[in-house]
Amino acid sequence: VFIQHPFVFNSSESLELLFNLLKQRVLELAPILIRTIEACAPLIVTLNQNNMMILLNSELSSYLTLHPPIAKRALYCICALNSNNKDELLQKMIDDTQYDQFDSDQFITNLVLLGHMIQISPIVLGDIGKRILTNISKYIVDKQQTNDNENNMTTSFFHGNFTLLPDEPHADPEIGADARVKRELVKAMTRAVLGLRENSSGLFNIVYKLIKKCIENDQDFTGEMSESEIIYIRLCGLSCLLKLICNSYFYTRMKQDDFLI
């Protein structure tokens, strides 16, 4: 109801109520609360609630470090509150993030946000976003070998050093961190190419190969996964393929024969 009728928060007092609720950090309420604030964003901007915008931006920024569904909603809310300079904000977020810290429990959240940011601002973030995603994914596709002493992407990925944030709501205990990373990588790259369209070039080829690996249960990609994780990753591949098929630009670049299982 609040999302459909954001005008009920047309006073400083009601907006302060929303902010105070946001500060409580109740994870179960966070998604709907942030969506309500996002719906109120045009009203907040119109009312010139500058102090409230500063407070909300600061608190929402802290939500970017939480679980992916919450962080994603916080990202879109920040963009709604700062529609005039969202490109600059997103560029700074990417510049301030270290995407090669694979053993960090923030890695999956960072990966999810990256895909959404490229989709939101493909012109500004396209080049750097493609470069980051390509660097992360090429070791999965090409399986380049490294020495154990080298501290790089391949060593981290194939040794399974990924971790998840603790206490994630609705997390499936049968899905490990490695499967989650592979799923979120495919989803992030799919979002990126959908945003980039004509400028996706090489990135489309990479994500198309990854989607095929997901759907066809390629042993090089899913070899150490459990049965539950294989189902999880195949559903991801099918979902991403459907998104590409539903896009008129990418539909013509795919062939039925590519998915004869």
Helical content class: 55-70%
SSE order, one letter for each helix or strand? HHHHHHHHHHHHH
**What Rg is obtained from the alpha carbons, in whole angstroms?**
20 Å
Strand percentage, roughly?
A: under 5%
Q: Which structural class do you get from the secondary structure elements?
A: mainly alpha
Biggest sheet, open or closed, and with what strands and sense?
none
Shape category: globular
The number of domains is: 2
Instruction: Give the N-to-C terminal Cα separation.
Output: 45 Å
Task: Describe the fold and architecture.
The longest helix has 21 residues, at 122-142. Helix 4 (68-81) packs parallel to helix 6 and helix 9 packs antiparallel against helix 10. The N and C termini lie far apart (45 Å). The chain has helices at 12-23, 30-46, 50-63, 68-81, 86-95, 107-120, 122-142, 153-158, 177-196, 201-215, 219-222, 227-245, 248-251. The chain folds into two domains: 1-84; 99-261, no CATH class. With 261 residues, the chain is mainly α. Mean pLDDT is 82; it is low at 143-160. 65% of the residues lie in helices and 0% in strands.
Blueprint (SSEs and pairs):
Blueprint: H1 12-23, H2 30-46, H3 50-63, H4 68-81, H5 86-95, H6 107-120, H7 122-142, H8 153-158, H9 177-196, H10 201-215, H11 219-222, H12 227-245, H13 248-251
Helix pairs in contact: 1-2, 1-3, 2-4, 3-4, 4-6, 6-7, 6-9, 7-9, 7-10, 9-10, 9-12, 10-12
